[in-house]
Description:
13 helices, 9% strand, 56% helix, 7-stranded mixed beta sheet, alpha/beta, single chain
Amino acid sequence: MVEKSAVEQPTLQNEQEQAARGIHESEESYDPAGEPADAVSNGESGRAEIVLSRNSEIDQAERKLSQLAATEREDPFEAGMGRREGSHFLVKFEGGENAVAGHLIGLLLEEAYFKAGSDLGYYPEQRIEALLYSKEAFRDITRSPSWAGAIYDGRIKLPVGGVTGKTSALEEVIFHEYTHAVVKELSNGKAPVWLSEGLAQYEEGKSAAPYARVLSGLASKGNLRLRPLEGSFMGLGPQEAQTAYVLSLSATSYIIREFGLSPVRSILERLGEGMELQEAISVCLGVSYDELEKDWAASLPGR
């Protein structure tokens, strides 16, 4: 899932300029727009960790019921959608006025297909679906959090009101959501959310550098932990989600910087084969889960 402003026209580029002065799917994507420094200084990071821990224990049956309800809302709406079919993607859009957006997003998805494919050495064989909605329909059908601007729940879903041309913000969103599709296929849907969201942000071109001060603050309080970030972020409020996404990006960027992208793919594949995350990290990176957290924290500026 991506923060709503990414698709709706105020660009992520502007938000990253703000981030430089402070801080910046179903799978969910979020582009944090403000620095959680106040949350850290006020002790909110501890609260966020508690919420994240609870969130990682969401009952699977409850999530399946939610998906069934979403399907019931989608089916009647989807029947009247236009279509753009390509080699690797099927793009469905609401109304003829969105045909241009459908064509544009189809082209961007193809770019993402080859970029992420080159990085991870993986090109999905099955065609991936992308559904384009009005802003109102997106909220009604997906029931996503207010901070979410796009989601991947097996299909890419985007609100495309006002999209008439290619922007860096739109490109970032598409690359982000497509990466979720790749992660799901490689891991058979078993990747921890922190790795999926971290890799999605990496593929859209984000850097953890603007968040160094906040990350150092969290590290000093012993709050750089990945286990609470393994489950869904969907139940988080904006501040908690912001912290979760920054941590995910930082940890994943550290892994890629220290070990490369190939071991990341190997972790995903091992998870898809049924290996537990702790074992997959040990086998593919040569360090334990706990050592990974400690080394990541130690790598931060000022530590």
